[in-house]
Amino acid sequence: MDLEQLLAGLSKQLQQSWVVYITSSETLLHLAEVTGIDDASESNTVQDDPLMQLRLRHKASQSGSRSHIKRIRLSLNKLIGSDEGREVVKEAKIVAKNEILETKAVELLKQEVDEMNAGFAESIMAPDLSPNDNAQNTTGDSRASVLPEFVVGNRTFIHRVLVTDPADFDKLSWDGVDHRLPEISPDQFMSTFVPEKNSEDINHADLPKRIAMNMKLAFFKGIAQDMSTENYVPVHSLLKELHDKMRTLLPNRQELHSHINDDDIGHSSCTSDVIRVLLRSGYLLANYLEAPSRAESTRELLSCLEVFNSRSRDSDNAPAIPYGIGTEHLLAVASVAFVLQKAELCQIDVSNYRLAQLALYIHGEVGNEYERSHFKKTHGDYSAVPINELQQMLPSSHAWVKSTLGLFETTDNISAQSSLDQKMEFIKGRGFVDGILFTKSELALPELFSLDIEDINYIRNEARCSVIASALSLHACNIIGSSILKTDNEVVGNELTSVLKKKHFKRDDLESEIITALTSFTTALADRSLSEEECSTLKNHALAVLRGNDPVLKLLDNRIRIYFRYACRWTPDNKSSGGISAPIEMKTGRKLVKGDDEFARGGVASSKTEFSLAASKEAKRLGFAFVSSDLIEAGNKARLIISLVCSNYDRDILGRLLMAEL
Question: Is the pTM above the cut of 0.70?
Answer without folding.
Answer: no
